[in-house]
Amino acid sequence: MLCIEIHKPEEVDSMGNRIAVAGASGYAGGEVLRLLAGHPNIEIAAVTAHSKAGQPVTDTHPHLRSLAGRTFAETTVDALAEADLVVITLPHGQSAELAAKLPADAKIVDLGADHRLVDAAAWEAYYDGPHAGAWTYGLPELPGGREAIAASKRVAATGCYAVATTLALAPILASGIGQPDDVVVVAASGTSGAGSAAKPHLMASEVAGSLSPYKVGAHQHVPEIKQATRARSLSFTPVLAPMPRGILSTVTVKPADAGLTTAEVHEVLAAAYADEPFVHVLPNGSWPRTADTLGSNSCHLQATMDSDADRIIVTAAIDNLGKGAAGQVVQCANLMLGLDETAGLNVDGVAP
Ligand SMILES: NC(=O)C1=CN([C@@H]2O[C@H](COP(=O)(O)OP(=O)(O)OC[C@H]3O[C@@H](n4cnc5c(N)ncnc54)[C@H](OP(=O)(O)O)[C@@H]3O)[C@@H](O)[C@H]2O)C=CC1
Ligand SMILES: CC(=O)N[C@@H](CCC(=O)OP(=O)(O)O)C(=O)O
């Protein structure tokens, strides 16, 4: 009789790769769980919540069938400390408080904003509470980004608008073709960007059928994008869009020199992202759409030179819960654990 020994991949491959998720009952935490459940090298350790502690995971996330039988634990140091890496998806302020109590050698990826900004004054201008200090910034596609993340125990993942806007803007400024003191951004986000806690302005009757600007000229991602791209002056207008997921960020920049062409702008982006698995500069004539990135860790980019207005225009689309949240968290965790950076992540979205 032929006897075949079968090893389940997770039993063979997950040693040293146990990830706990603090704040797993939220939108971002739920998407982290979905990605980790399908990850070939990760075992899911503790999954914790706050008001939902003690409840079955599938009561909150009925789509996560593979987690049936699991229950949210309280968000405590004891519950999290056993893991090889802790992902924190908590509200601002809560993540710094929790991280400070975890063992000093614990690997952590924090999706909250608490550890993103180097400049304490910028933090205090946009957020409540004391500045907790800066960690390695979690955007692997920035120059030196993935090496720094791989060498770090503490990584501050990027804000959702900041991911899309920085990927569009950074090469334009780094190459010198755009002026860092003249950047204008208008970006639309789906409602899941605001989290799952009930808010009056997120009621269906308020959101459906309307585009609503908010935090105009005062959004907390402005200092973060300036820090990541070296933009000196940046006008940012966020718009709430009647869709669950997706961010479309349109960035316009004054060119440094006269005569810049669309082909030259395209070349700058193509060169910056030629080897990037998750950033795709679309063929000429195709423009990014949020729908094409949903469920993926991809960012779609396109650019043109508006010669009449004399501005470079770059548009970026992401899934705010993908590359804008859970996808980038898993990408950073892969780097920190020495795994293939792309493991467990999709470049393909779902359509229609
Ligand atoms: N949504 C997005 O697209 C993105 C979000 N982020 C950031 O990620 C973090 C999580 O966002 P999101 O998932 O949308 O938010 P949610 O509001 O959906 O989830 C928040 C999570 O934190 C828990 N929580 C709430 N209050 C406390 C508290 N006082 N102590 C401990 N735990 C608490 C909640 O538990 P319970 O439900 O059990 O009460 C829940 O698990 C935020 O910092 C957000 O800014 C960053 C990038 C993108
Ligand atoms: C639609 C919507 O409300 N989006 C949130 C994005 C929050 C986020 O993801 O970023 P932080 O982690 O930096 O808070 C906002 O604009 O504040």
TrEMBL record:
Keywords assigned: Amino-acid biosynthesis, Arginine biosynthesis, Cytoplasm, NADP, Oxidoreductase
Domain of life: Bacteria
GO cellular component terms listed in the entry, alphabetical order: cytoplasm
Keyword Phosphoprotein set for record: no
Residues at the catalytic site: C160
Pathway entry: Amino-acid biosynthesis; L-arginine biosynthesis; N(2)-acetyl-L-ornithine from L-glutamate: step 3/4
Semialdehyde dehydrogenase NAD-binding domain span: 18-150
Catalytic activity field: N-acetyl-L-glutamate 5-semialdehyde + phosphate + NADP(+) = N-acetyl-L-glutamyl 5-phosphate + NADPH + H(+)
SMART domains membership: Semialdhyde_dh
EC main group: oxidoreductase
Pfam families membership: Semialdhyde_dh, Semialdhyde_dhC_1
Protein's GO biological process: L-arginine biosynthetic process
HAMAP family noted in UniProt: ArgC_type1
Entry function: Catalyzes the NADPH-dependent reduction of N-acetyl-5-glutamyl phosphate to yield N-acetyl-L-glutamate 5-semialdehyde.
Protein name, as recorded: N-acetyl-gamma-glutamyl-phosphate reductase
Gene, per the UniProt record: argC
